[in-house]
Amino acid sequence: MRLMNLLMFLLCCFLSCGSDDNPTDPPKEEPGATVPEGYSLVWSDEFDNTPNRLPGNEWWFETGNNGWGNNEPQYYIDRVLGNDTVAKVQNGMLTITAFKLATPHDGADIISARMNTVRSWKYGYFEMRAKVPGGKGTWAAFWMLPKNFQSWPLDGEIDIMEYVGYRPDVTQASVHTAAYNHVDGTERTATRSAPGAERKFYTYGLLWTEDEIAGYIDGVKYFSFANDHANNKNTWPFNEPFYLKLNLAIGGNWGGLQGIDPNIFPARYEIDYVRVYQQAK
């Protein structure tokens, strides 16, 4: 009986292995990743294999506590302050964390991170897979500013993803220009339902060409801003290289519209990857 059982076990192993001399694992599934046809990966940060568990030299950090144009109370830190790490890479994930301090730092009792790519690009498809923090007061963003930025909003801003915690399960994409800047009905923005965005990962994308800027969530297009081809910087400043930005703000004119819940801390913004694709020249 034991011999028969052994023979049956060996037969099952043989059948399950099959006859493929070069078996391969199935590709890693990334729901929502939709790269336009004809576009190839030119840059990415997968947040893997980081020895010191901190973002590397592909990123630079803005620091300080000057309200950032929105009366935000947080102080942005370069990666680490004391025992608090505001930008950590671990287990293939970047986590930006906003902390409430027991002892204020330079007059601020909230710290977080605002990080930027060293590189910049003109046109392309830009994508991030992330899970956002919730609660009143949180304001997570994935956005772009021009490399040679001098004046806002004249030089333009592209918001790939913004999420404010007082408005759960809703994401937003926008552009800002001198002519279209949330004044007197000139908004150029759109929202999209993102059920469970604080509990699961979504893929946020943006396709930027010389004719249009389009926003996506899990491959679904929900925002579009067309180039009027008037050669007017006030309406279309998007013909220069832009760099990518990741940050977690707290409060401010928009994020704090309904106040700041003291129970949100530590607030965590988790990013699986950031990728940039461009058409072959």
From TrEMBL:
<feature type="signal peptide">
    <location>
        <begin position="1"/>
        <end position="18"/>
    </location>
</feature>
<dbReference type="InterPro" id="IPR000757">
    <property type="entry name" value="Beta-glucanase-like"/>
</dbReference>
<feature type="domain" description="GH16">
    <location>
        <begin position="28"/>
        <end position="281"/>
    </location>
</feature>
<dbReference type="Pfam" id="PF00722">
    <property type="entry name" value="Glyco_hydro_16"/>
</dbReference>
<comment type="similarity">
    <text>Belongs to the glycosyl hydrolase 16 family.</text>
</comment>
<protein>
    <recommendedName>
        <fullName>GH16 domain-containing protein</fullName>
    </recommendedName>
</protein>
<dbReference type="InterPro" id="IPR013320">
    <property type="entry name" value="ConA-like_dom_sf"/>
</dbReference>
<dbReference type="InterPro" id="IPR050546">
    <property type="entry name" value="Glycosyl_Hydrlase_16"/>
</dbReference>
<dbReference type="GO" id="GO:0004553">
    <property type="term" value="F:hydrolase activity, hydrolyzing O-glycosyl compounds"/>
</dbReference>
<keyword id="KW-0732">Signal</keyword>
<dbReference type="GO" id="GO:0005975">
    <property type="term" value="P:carbohydrate metabolic process"/>
</dbReference>
